[in-house]
Structure formats: C-alpha cells, structure tokens
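Human: We require from you a protein record containing the residue sequence and its fold in token form, and nothing else.

Assistant:
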Amino acid sequence: MSPPRRPGNTPRPRALSATARRTTPLPANWEELRAQAMQRDGNQCTWIEDGQRCPERGTDADHIGDRDDHSLDNIRILCGYHHRKRTAIQARAARGPMPSRERPREPHPGLLTDAEREPPPY
C-alpha cells in the first residue's frame, strides 16, 4: 500500500528506462493511456503465438502501428520478453535485407567461355 499523498503533490510521471530510444516524446496523458490499455488487456501480455495468448503479466505498452499515434486502439500491452522480440523484428525489418556473406564466384582465369572456344577441327 502506498503512503497517502499530501495535497498539492502530484505523482511523478514514470521515467523511461535508460535504454529507451524514443525519437518522439510521449503525450502528457501517456500514463493514463497506458493504464487504460493495461485495464483493457487485463494486465496480461497480448502476444499470440501458435494460437495461444502469452500467459505472462503485461508490463510494457507497445504501439501496434504508427509510433506517433497514441490512440488507445494503437496501444497494446506486452510482457518484457515479447516487447523486446517485437522491437527486434521491427529493427531487423528497418535495416533491410542482409548482404550475402558469400563471395561471388569468379570464373577460373584459365577457362574459356563458349564464345572463345573453337569448334573441333573434324
């Protein structure tokens, strides 16, 4: 149980973690939106895999689509594991396809191409 608040004291907004890298600020009513999403989702992670919803406690608010759209329909609750997984999937997609680690095959310098071959003399 938290201690009673004195009149005039407002709760401090929840700070982003030291590793958070938001490029756009969250709206002033972010904590209210987050609390509404937590209540709507039953404080449970909403990640669905193989047709099963994750049974873990939801701790992180995730933007489903546009990260600048802070509407309640665009926010879902995820556990820490699935939020990290989702972020990794998005980061991988943003980087684009990975270049091939295989060197291109070069033809052997002593091999002749079909155009350079002479037909047999017979």
Remarks:
- The CA atoms of residues 97 and 103 lie 16 Å apart.
